[in-house]
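Fig. S4 source data, part A: sequence.
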Amino acid sequence: MKPLILFDIDGTLLSTEGAGRASLTQAFQERFGVEDAFAGLSFAGATDLGITGRAFAHAGLEPDFAALEEAYLPLLSERLGIQAPRLCPGVPDILAPCAQRAHLALLTGNWLQGARIKLQAAGLLEHFDPWVGAFGDDAADRNLLVPVAEQRAREQGLPLGRTVVIGDTPRDVECARAGGAIAVAVCTGWSDRETLAATEPDLLIEDLRREGSALLRLLESL
């Protein structure tokens, strides 16, 4: 049995430097005629289903997630084709050692296809099992995603030990707690160290380059 380690994407593995938000904003305007639909809405730790649902509500529109996603994905792909995502420190060097100790998968607020576009543009897609993980398509509430990822892992016949969630926001820590998982917080994204420390994760690291060994020791102990 191996642990299941679930990586967040934005702020944990990579940064698109705002390409995701810009693409969603443009898609909303082109498809529904609403400018700056996400003004005042925080993407930190949100799911695409949740954040777009709030945007539809603020605009007074009936949600049409399929139409929005259809418009969004080509725009995201185009932007990331022009400027590839920036990898967070220590990525991808930490992924192979993690894979020796654990099953690797994603737990992300991104829609599945958006996640794949981002990872493909960053050269990371090959590191993750395409049939395991949980995504922004699965629930508007991030706190529901750990059991989804665990069930998919079992369906693939993976013998699971403990589950570890690694992310960069308090919502990632909250998600881990809600799913009975171990919470690892990394200070490379939306939230600073003080904010993350206040959530009392099981492991708090500055980044995966300088403190990746602490993550590997945690996996070895499980």
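Fig. S4 source data, part B ends here. The first helix runs from residue 19 to 32.
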